[in-house]
Amino acid sequence: MGEGELIEALDARAKRRADRRAFFQQALGAAAVGGAVIAASSAGAQTATPTPSPSPTATTAFGASDYLNFALNLEYLEANFYAFATTGSAIDAGLQTGVSTAGAQGAATGGRAVSFTDPVVAQFAREIAADELAHVRFLRAAIGTLAVAQPAIDLSPGGAFSTAARAAGLAGAGATFDPYASDENFLLGSFLFEDVGVTAYKNVTGLLSNTTLLEATQGILAVEAYHAAMIRTTLYRKGIETPALRLIEATQQISDARDRLDGTVAENLLTGYGPDDDQGVAGSTNAAGEAVSNIVPLNANGLAFSRSSDRVLNILYLNQASVSAGGFFPAGINGAIKTSAVAT
Amino acid sequence: MTDRMTDPDLTQSILAAGAERRAERRRFIKLASGGVAVAGGLSLLAACGGSDNDNPIVNPTPSPTPTPTATSIQAQVDVLNFALQLEYLEAQFYAFAANGVGLPDNLLSGTGTRGSVTGGRRVTFTDPVVAAYAREIAADEVAHVAFLRQSQLLGSAAVAMPAIDLSAGGAFTAAARAAGIVGANETFDPFASDENFLLGAYIFEDVGVTAYKGASTTLVFTAGYQEATAGLLAAEAYHAGLIRTTLYQKGIATPSLRTRADAISNARDILDGVQATSTPTPTPTASPTPTPTPTSTTSPLPTGVDSRDLDQGITGTATVSNIVPADANGLAFSRTVGQVLNIAFLSNAPVTQGGFFPSGINGNLKTSADSRG
User: Fold this and answer.
1) Most exposed: A10, A276, B142, B238, by fewest CB within 10 Å?
2) Cβ neighbours of residue B8 under 8 Å, at least 6 residues apart?
């Protein structure tokens, strides 16, 4: 295979991921052109700042504990989901308390244990459950006395999960989606959260200036990405093995629904924001007719996406409007950051 | 139904399963049994509060991003160039495995000594899913090379690709022998089969995650870079998760895949140092980090910086997998530049070349750490 064929092979990928197109323009020449901003800066000019992320909302009023508390709410959600799926119960009551002034403590309700048939899926579920529980503990310790309580969380099959599934077209009007009913449903339920966690943490890394907090946050970001890959890889493989399950198609539908819910923001290929910040696992074929998977959702530069906190809330509240409760958090999340964006 | 999570015995057994699986998670049990309950005892915010107005009650305005200085900018160039060379290595490996050809010339130029790739060939995949993964990751890694080289980042400051050894008889075999997955006189060819390809990929992927995480604090002073490199970090973690998940899954039919992956992790751990103390590695060769890494020796801050055990295999217990290498707090690990180079050079001594980079790497960060202690 020559250079041209490599580019062709890469090009097939571009067709699959429309937003990777910019990369090829760069790879084919533009990349080598132009003065390096950093290089120029190292010669004295202090203009090394790349285009900053277009923080879709004013987040300047928030401090580090607000961002970490926001993350803690997401971890409460994930930890409870996996705890229910693997044990049939919510996380320990001792981990649900928090500052009373930042929002009421609520219960996580509606979940139940999955009767796993594939032992590997069960092993993955237990591993992720332990990790998410560790994240809850870690963030509560890191935030200290300012940590918010667990808000009310709806994990019931008839509630937020079904609303999300209907929005994605996975369930018809009036039908329910039960993430605890089967291995496959559990994987799709997990899929609903995992990539969102990655984008949420990545956004936070752009907002923290304290290096210790930053490194810790990147540690959680990486773990969420590992989790997302576990779930996506498993859905892809099962989808290939048993096409009738339509698992690969389901990831596309969920991804599209998330994309609709979180609206459109300006593309920033350097920081990872974009109008289309979500991808399912469906692959494509390259010029040689070979299959290429899409386990990793990335932009044209090969970067994972970011979502601002308010757009993350559009997805978790299952609402494109600016609201402060709904979906998986029927009473809203706790802390200073709690309102979703006007996601048009 | 029994309330299993609130049943102390069951909860403890779940935690214990995790602990067996991950020795490094032992501290977690300690925390779980009381440590955390000491409110704010481990608070990062409290720990950092003296000099940083992170508490919104005290001061709702986040600390302004420090003005970049010539020194901090040079440090960022150094770190990005270091990352670029890891990406050259990964991109060439996957490009050869998936397509039988390396990167185009226009992605290899730059300052320093330009080298070439030795070895590397197309894998004749038998499992079409593994082939699809290889093609996906190859394109991602090529994108990373192009991204770091683009004008908004390194541009004309980018270093050239150094000499890279992908030959079956070279660095891969040395690494495989070090891990004990082949005998002292056997070779390990990562392009020979699906399984070998996955193990070859495994050698690199987690290292990339720890490298980006370890470098993250150097890039903090220029807004935007942090989020860009966090995007690379996450992409590498997705890749690593993909490879580890696949090895684990295939390990049902071929148990040696799991034990060999575990052996590679152990080898990496030996290469990057196994100091007995919990003193955080002070980011040695990793360029001038403006804020010093906390140096408390009694209770290191939980950032995933831990010099004792930075690596984990995929085998868990009978009931729990270990796809994600994480510490007791559920955080991915960090490696310093020097530790990453211990692995890339396949040497626990402070050297400037060897292993996958037989002529060393370009740029200012080029020496591995002294991890023989």
Assistant:
1) A276
2) none
Q: Using the beta-carbon criterion (under 8 Å), do B141 and A39 form an inter-chain contact?
A: no
Structure confidence by residue, pLDDT tens digits, B332-363: 999 999 999 999 999 999 999 999 999 999 99
Task: Tell me which residue has tokens 């386990």.
Answer: A295
Contact B129, A240 (CB under 8 A): yes
State ipTM.
Answer: 0.85
Give CA separation, A112 vs A87, A123, A154, A176, B176, in Å. 8, 17, 12, 15, 44
Name the residue among A126, A203, A211 with its Cβ closest to that of B217: A211
Tell me, yes or no, if the pTM score tops 0.80. yes
A177-195 burial code (b ≥16 CB/10 A, e <16): bbbbebbbbbbbbbbbbbb
With tokens 């390194």, the residue in question is B154
Give Cα separations from A178 to A113, A152, A228 (angstroms): 11, 19, 20
End-to-end CA distance of chain A: 45
**How far is Cα A138 from Cα A63, in angstroms, rounded to an integer?**
18
For the stretch A200-209, pLDDT in tens is 999 999 898 8
d(CA B168, CA A36): 37
Instruction: Give chain A's largest Cα–Cα span.
Output: 64
Model confidence pLDDT, tens digit, residues B155-175: 999 999 999 999 988 999 999
How confident is the model over A212-250, as pLDDT tens digits? 888 899 999 999 999 999 999 999 999 999 999 999 999
What would the pLDDT profile of A111-148 be if each residue is shown by its tens digit?
A: 999 999 999 999 999 999 999 999 999 999 999 999 99
Is the pLDDT at B287 greater than 60? The verdict is no
Cβ pair A76, A108 in contact under 8 A: yes
Q: Distance between CA A88 and CA A94 in Å, rounded?
A: 17
Q: What is the largest CA-CA distance in chain B?
A: 67
CB contact under 8 A, A219 and B213: yes
Q: Which of B55, B122, B155 has its CB closest to that of A146?
A: B55
Strands A153-154 and A284-285: unpaired
Give the count of beta carbons closer than 10 Å to the beta carbon of residue B48: 21
- Say whether B154 and A39 touch across the interface (CB within 8 A): yes
Asked if residue B345 lies in contact with residue B162, where contact means CB atoms within 8 angstroms, the answer is: no
Residues of A within 8 A of B20 (CB-CB) are none
Is residue A114 a contact partner of residue A186, using CB atoms and an 8 Å limit? yes
Our measurement of the distance from residue A278's CA atom to the centroid of its chain's CA atoms, rounded to an integer in Å, reads 9
